[in-house]
Amino acid sequence: MKLIFLTVGILLLAVAGIAIKIWAKKDGKFAGTCASQSPFLNPDGENCSFCGKTPEQMKDCNESSHA
Length: 67
Known about the structure:
The chain is an all-alpha fold. It has one helix spanning 2-24. The longest helix has 23 residues, at 2-24.
């Protein structure tokens, strides 16, 4: 029973942390949401499926195309 309470408590802390981050950010936007920015998530260097930018174009991304 203690394990269930501990698990639920940790999950609630994680959700609260994400909620606070969204609340604290301007317009509730996360920075760097394109997977093409991460070499671990995009090892082949494919374009972003959301905005179509290549990983090279993401270096100066201001995320205005994501709104």
